[in-house]
Amino acid sequence: MNSDFxxxxxxxxxxxxxxxxxxxxxxxWQTFENGAQHVSDRLIELAGIRPGNRVLxxxxxxxxxxxxxxxxxxxxxxxxxxDMSTEMLAxxxxxxxxxxxxxxxxxxxxxxxxxQLGTNHTFDAILCRWGLMFLPNLSNALxxxxxxxLPGRKLAVAVWSEPSKVPLINxxxxxxxxxxxxxxxxxxxPGPFSLADVHLxxxxxxxxxxxxxxxxxxxxxxxxxKLKREKRKYGMLLLIRLNYYxxxxxxxx
Length: 253
Fold this sequence. Notes:
This protein is of the alpha/beta class.
């Protein structure tokens, strides 16, 4: 980690940033989820989530994959969704109510590295979609997550691949860097690509030895998004090739 990096300031800035863009996510969530839903579905499958399960979703944003998991666990189960951004959580709660899932879901503003869920909180499955790469102290977070999993149960997460394989993020970031004459944030600093495939050993090194089993699932998916530009009165179809990693961690019995 960069010696000048301040994890506390980083988290404060992250929270402010996510709060500031929450309404934009609310506006475009359906477009985004049209492509991202398959990731939520795959995480739920990898975690082995079943009706009646208790599930934790870390860094849920505007409610995924928590909402998708709630539809699976049903009335006999429960889903707890956490995020550092109160604005994003407010949108997630609104989605939950609109779908009639509020009786089996609860939302908690909490730092993913220091989850404040009260006492006796253990889960059948824990999910995190595109969140782990933003954690300054991943090793500590994994230890705490491990403690919340019931024996034999799984954590399933998705993280972004290397920049060249994620044009959805890399193109706008590269354009902004070029315009601002700024350099790429180093892989040692938390960010979208800090757990990319060239750095998978970081996860292997940070896992809890002799207590969990890890498997990596590499996917390539074509995501079709319609971009509307009403001022110019035309629509553009953009075919984006997404590449991401799905990671499952199973607690040893």
